[in-house]
Fold:
Amino acid sequence: MSLRKNLVFTVIAAVSILCGCADKTNNDKNIAVTRDVFAMDTYMNLKAYGKNAEPALEEAEKRIHELENELSATSEQSDIWKINHSSGEETAVSRDTAALIDKALEIGNSTHGALDITIFPVLKEWGFTTEKYHIPDENKLKSLLENVDYRQIKLNDKTVSIPEKSEIDLGALAKGYTGDEIMEVFKSHSIDSAIVSLGGNVQALGSKPDGTNWKVAVRDPFSPENDMCVVEISDKAVITSGNYERFFTGDDGKRYWHIIDPADGYPADNGFVSVTVIGENGLNCDCLSTALFVAGIDGYKDIMMDYPNYDFIFVTDDEKILYTGGIKDKFQNISSMSAEVIDID
Ligand code: ADP
Ligand code: MG
Structure:
């Protein structure tokens, strides 16, 4: 863990201790109660305000672990593991798993296959699940791609089947859904001000306790230790997919990252180095950030038009920021890159 992260965690821990009141009631509405959780391979930080903050965080943490147990592709108890080892037979799954697969199929369609949750065998071949990275042989990729096709997934209420040689993974959307579910837990505890960070995903409930918007920083993909811009939000998720989040450098000196283009099985390299999606539904934001990263500079406009209630920030590989007009007054560029509003026509 970097020194900076350590410092952040120390400060967070200090605040937690400060708020660890004996009766677990946080009576000062301006003091945050926070909690760090490591789940889904991600450092998560949850922050809630109000007198029910402590029990709300407790339940949110339980919900995160419940979702991880259902959705992880690598844990042998999960629904996804069972589906991937079902030899083509039907598998009964939880309500969460069914909802996520349903959404993945919907967005698979609306993004013309840019989001394809059957990409998992290709991701494994590159070593992204084990961190034993290598550049696959081109013929190997071709043969794996023969079984990549989300349209072969059959979802019937809470029963799923996939072809024998296919495998699925919900890494592109699980954290977006988790954010939405944490917001539901918070609401059920009458929390009206909270913010969570799940790796590159931020999601807020309401606004800050003083009524002003949350300010969320988006990283600079060219120097991820620095922020690139700040967006103001309330009641929204801000979700980023970037080529700097998980990658390795090959013997050829090139960078290979974890978002795969189902068209050829290689890391998607279609003009974007990061895509951020802002909107009320974290699940949609997460699906779209991955899919638009794949769709790239030639495909993004078509897809974006179908999602008028969402805002987008794209960073191109030639170092330009493009963003949508809906966040014009809420967007502050703090990088040296140029930033321009996307012209839809
Ligand atoms: P992260 O979760 O790392 O912030 P993303 O939301 O963009 O980033 O999801 C990336 C993950 O999605 C990968 O680790 C992999 O599990 C999965 N994935 C990669 N390419 C695709 C794709 N084309 N369609 C669906 N899932 C993908
Ligand atoms: Mg995503």
